[in-house]
Automatic annotation (TrEMBL):
Domain ENPP1-3/EXOG-like endonuclease/phosphodiesterase: start-end pairs: 57-287
SUPFAM superfamilies: His-Me finger endonucleases
Native source organism of the sequence: Acanthochromis polyacanthus (spiny chromis)
UniProtKB keywords: Signal
Signal peptide residues on this chain, from the entry's feature table: 1-17
Origin: domain of life: Eukaryota
Organism lineage: Eukaryota, Metazoa, Chordata, Craniata, Vertebrata
PANTHER family: ENDONUCLEASE DOMAIN-CONTAINING 1 PROTEIN ENDOD1, ENDONUCLEASE DOMAIN-CONTAINING 1 PROTEIN-LIKE
Name under which the protein is recorded: Endonuclease domain-containing 1 protein-like
Length: 298
């Protein structure tokens, strides 16, 4: 049996560290997930769960691959916004991927030396500095957030992947704007979004080393159970949940809309997942309470 002091120390660690064993161990971190439940069925042997924390507050969650140095997905709640895009926030990194001290907040990259232990666990600015074809593509985009702090928190390299420039500023940006307008106008409650990638082994190299995995596909899905039932039919059929899939390519990268179940079927053949893959708890069908047998497993 744990002594009270020992338990308090363990609890303090679980509630302050950014890289966690379970997303619901961090104050309000599970609020970024529909029914507080992360996507299930993803094989997580080497993956890190990050509660993306900025200015002492959890903002969203990311499942991160420290070997490929990109996120598998970021999950966040959509905030109604005018869609303007800010570009003056500093890029940040996640100290907790390399060490467990500190207050758990993401930090701006220093202007000088960054210890090698951080480069071993995540991407750094140098990985993107001399790459012409690719841009840093947000999985949780700043234009889906409203407050300055929530927007600033999206500018961490643990939330971005290398996206072909023409794809990033073309079809994918158009999709992000289309979803922003749709959720602004027709989602009455909270909209939960999960955006992720698939990879096939291609890497950005630096100093003759494989550094950052290049996504083959980019996918996204949203869940909003409280929506406008009087919306136009072509909108209403895209609630309570819907998904998209696109190739991370210079050409032929149109964004295809589909059901979440169709996306899950695709991902079962293109990601390291098992047949139980489910992006949203109970398929985002209803806000029913979690059954007791699941309450201790998420």
């Amino acid at each position: 049996m744990l002594m009270p002091l020992a338990f308090a120390l363990i609890f303090s660690f679980l509630t302050s560290a950014t890289v966690v064993q379970d997303f619901n161990h961090v104050e309000r971190c599970k609020d970024s997930l529909y029914m507080g439940t992360p996507p299930r069925g993803i094989i997580e042997t080497r993956l890190k769960k990050i509660c993306q924390r900025y200015a002492d507050k959890p903002r969203y969650v990311t499942l991160y691959d420290p070997q490929k140095r990109i996120p598998v997905y970021s999950a966040y709640t959509f905030k109604k916004t005018e869609g303007d895009r800010r570009v003056d926030y500093p890029w940040m990194y996640e100290p907790q991927l390399a060490e467990t001290d500190g207050n758990g907040n993401m930090l701006p990259f220093p202007t000088g030396y960054l210890h090698m232990k951080f480069e071993d666990s995540q991407a750094v600015l140098d990985d993107y500095s001399d790459v012409v074809l690719y841009e840093r593509g947000h999985l949780n985009p700043d234009q889906h957030q409203s407050t300055p702090h929530d927007r600033a928190a999206t500018y961490t390299l643990t939330n971005v992947v290398p996206e072909i420039r023409e794809f990033n500023i073309g079809p994918w940006r158009e999709y992000e704007e289309r979803i922003r307008v749709r959720l602004n106008n027709f989602c009455r409650g909270t909209a939960y979004i999960v955006t992720g990638v698939t990879t096939r082994g291609n890497m950005i190299r630096r100093n003759n080393q494989d550094r950052v995995a290049i996504p083959e596909d980019v996918w996204s899905a949203y869940c909003c159970t409280d929506y406008d039932h009087n919306s136009p039919h072509d909108v209403r059929i895209r609630f309570p949940s819907h998904a998209v899939l696109a190739k991370n390519a210079k050409e032929g990268s149109s964004v295809h809309e589909m059901t979440v179940q169709e996306l899950e079927n695709f991902l079962k053949n293109h990601m390291d997942v098992d047949q139980s893959l489910q992006i949203f708890y109970d398929n985002c069908i209803s806000p029913s309470p979690l059954p007791l047998y699941l309450q201790h497993t998420i």
